[in-house]
Amino acid sequence: MDAMSTRAEPEAVEPVQTEERALDLAYDVLQARCPSRYALEHVTGRWGTLIMLSLRDGPVRFNELRRRVDGISEKMLSQGLQALERDGFVARDVLSTMPPRVEYQLTELGRGTSDQLKALAVFLETRMPEVKAAQAEYDRGEDGAA
After folding, report:
1. At 61, which helix (H) or strand (E)?
2. Cβ atoms of residues 90 and 106 within 8 Å
3. Residues in domain HTH hxlR-type (predicted)?
4. Looking at residue 99, what is its pLDDT?
5. Are the C-beta atoms of 41 and 49 separated by less than 8 Å?
6. How far is residue 137's CA from residue 142's CA, in Å, rounded to a whole number?
7. Of 4, 53, 59, 90, which cross-links 80 as Cys (Cβ 3.0–4.6 Å)?
8. Is 28 strand, coil or helix?
9. CA angle, 75 as apex, 57 and 58 as ends, to 5°?
10. Mind listing the pLDDT tens digit for each residue in 5-32?
């Protein structure tokens, strides 16, 4: 099932107490039944991250957003937007024009989350030479094992 699919979320579970956890959080993403896992999936899934990054410059209409997120299908964009809207990261605004226009934009929660995603994206982009070197080394090792 795709990360953008919507599923019934289980009720919150009590966090597992470990020495590493300095704070007593109400949610623990590492727990299988924790609802925070679904929000994490929606935000960090392949399309969720790209949608969130594409909305950083302000309100965008659906077709413009589809052009910005190269390779996304209409169906995946629609599902991704719905999941992110449900979780409170994206707001859908219907403008009373003729014909009606719909725009999507990040909420305050979405902006804060997208800041974190942007930092991660920049970090990865700047470290790609290391990633590519690691991939090449791994691939060379795989060839010798056959």
Report:
1. strand 60-61
2. yes
3. 34-132
4. 87
5. no
6. 9
7. 4
8. coil
9. 10
10. 445 555 554 545 554 554 556 888 888 8
How far apart CA 120 and CA 67 sit, in angstroms, is: 23
CA torsion 71→74→79→82, rounded to 10°? 110
> What is the spatial distance between Cα 106 and Cα 134, in angstroms, rounded to a whole number?
35
| pTM for this entry | 0.76
Please enumerate in sequence order all residues whose Cβ is within 8 A of that of 121, keeping only pairs 6 or more positions apart, or say none: 49, 53
Residues of the chain with pLDDT under 70: 1-25, 143-146
Which residues touch 11 (CB under 8 Å, ≥6 apart)?
33, 35
